[in-house]
Amino acid sequence: MFAIVKIQGQQYKIQEGQHIYVPHLAGKAGDKIEFNEILFSADEGKLAMGKDAPKLVKAEIISDLVKGDKVIAFKMKRRKGFRKKHGHRTQYTRIKIESIA
Question: Rounded to two decimals, what is the model's pTM?
Answer without folding.
Answer: 0.82
